[in-house]
Amino acid sequence: MVLMTAAAIAVAAVAFSVTGGRTQRFGTMLAQVGVAVGVAPNPYNTLNDQLNAKQAQLDMEAADLAVQRAALASDTAAGAVAGPASPYWYLVAAVGALTLLVVLNFYMDWRRAEHERTWEEGRERPRQLPPIA
């Protein structure tokens, strides 16, 4: 505080001497005084700007990833309901194959039973194909 007061008095004295001894309003004198302070940019005083730029870049990448995840999730959900590789279609194919095998087994049993019944009745046995060698 003391240093600030001394600086204000020094500025007033310099302004008084520059104006040739004429008194001016203090606000006018301060308007004529300017101070510029700066530090040359280096890696340490620009680190905050670099970190903010990196954070902005990471936020944009995170937003892009969120959009890609949402698109992938919607594609996966749509594919799970009606996709050709869904477990539902594998189950339908397996049940269909088993049903076909059961029907084929009943047909083959019926044919065998018919063949044995005709043999028992004394009819001529139907011709069989020769075995495959």
List strands and helices in order, with pairings:
Layout lengths: L1 H17 L7 H6 L15 H36 L4 H34 L13
Describe this structure in words.
This protein has 133 residues and is mainly alpha-helical. It is 70% helix and 0% strand. It has four helices and no strands. The protein is rod-shaped and about 145 Å long.
Q: What key attributes describe this structure?
A:
133 residues; mainly alpha; 4 helices; rod-shaped
Number of strands: 0
Strand content: under 5%
Rounded to an integer in angstroms, the radius of gyration calculated over CA atoms is 49 Å
Distance between the termini: 116 Å
**Poorly predicted sequence stretches spanning 5 or more consecutive residues:** none
Main sheet characteristics: none
Helicity level: 55-70%
**From the structure provided, what is the oligomeric state, counting identical versus distinct chains?**
single chain
> What order do the SSEs take from the amino end to the carboxyl end, as H and E?
HHHH
Helical/strand content category: mainly alpha
Mean pLDDT: 77
**Number of helical runs?**
4
> What would the principal axes of the Cα set say about the shape?
rod-shaped
